[in-house]
Amino acid sequence: MEHYIYKNRQKLRCGYTTGSCAAAAAKAAAIMLLRQTPLSQIELMTPKGILLSLKLHDVQVTPNRVTCAVQKDSGDDPDVTNGILVYAAVEMQPTPSVAICGGAGVGTVTKAGLEQPIGEAAINRVPRQMIQRELAQIKEEHEYTGGFRVTISIPKGAALAQKTFNPKLGVIGGLSVLGTSGIVEPMSEQALVESIFIELRMLAAGGAKHLLLTPGNYGEHFAREHIHLDLSRSVKCSNYIGQTLDKASELGFEKILLVGHIGKLIKLAGGIMDTHSHTADCRMELLAAHTAMHCTNRRLICGIMDCITTDQALDLLIKHNLTKQVMASVLQKIEMHLNHRVGEQVKAGAILFSNRHGYLGETAQAQELCAHYIQAKETNI
Between the chain's N and C termini, which has fewer beta carbons within 10 Å? Predict the structure, then answer.
């Protein structure tokens, strides 16, 4: 794929997702099944609007079934799935629907809280939509009134999945077929951190002494829509909270307010300041430990440990009327680690929320920091 993006003056080549591979292979297999003629390549329009022209591998055409593969290309983004073959096998069926299932190397969902229901193949929503769209168009072009059964498989998926968080998340037996845009946009960690630092330097150069941080879009949306904070000089720090705090302290910021989803910020209660799941995923361990401080219900504590998402864990805490106590102790630890990181010269606070349950709590200094940031909109401080 020859599509590039520029990050921090670096030219980086984009790739395409496992979802695009699956959709392209399924499209090619369906065409070959109806025409009974082998193809060597296939075009696929991605949700991002980028047209891919992809080479087909291991094409096998029979009257009743066609299989072929597309090789994953992650571009300049490091990924354990780079270079793998994603296969699609397509068969005709009398009913007009398109059935999509997972074969060897595609994981199966075994726990609630993921995008697909328990028992379904871990082929996410957008790749499924891409396959459905392409095959619907093929049916129309060929005036075919029947349907298709599509089986997606990844021969090396089971082994590669052991290098991912899939087993812990409850996706067993293989990889997930992912992608929302169809395109992999690379971004090296160094380049991303430096882009955050550039924003901080620009704010500091403009005389700002107060900083609003959000890990991403969720935090930014909550800060704007629910707390009504001025975001004109806020910075998205992604997973690099610790490095951002260090640089903000170095640049002379005096007050820092962090607004984030509990799924990210819970890790701060354990002193983990790089919140990427590849670095550490202690969300349930921390929630279970703080729950154990306030109750002796072993079933509840074990239930939290078995949760996949923080929203599921919050459901259990709410059911047992423990949310307030647990969030209070979690926030005390978050405050302790924030203060330790920024030092005595900087006031730091945090506000926690959940997309499902809304506001969850705040550290002791958060109200003061929050009020000042609202004021900043009018006084331009």
Answer: C
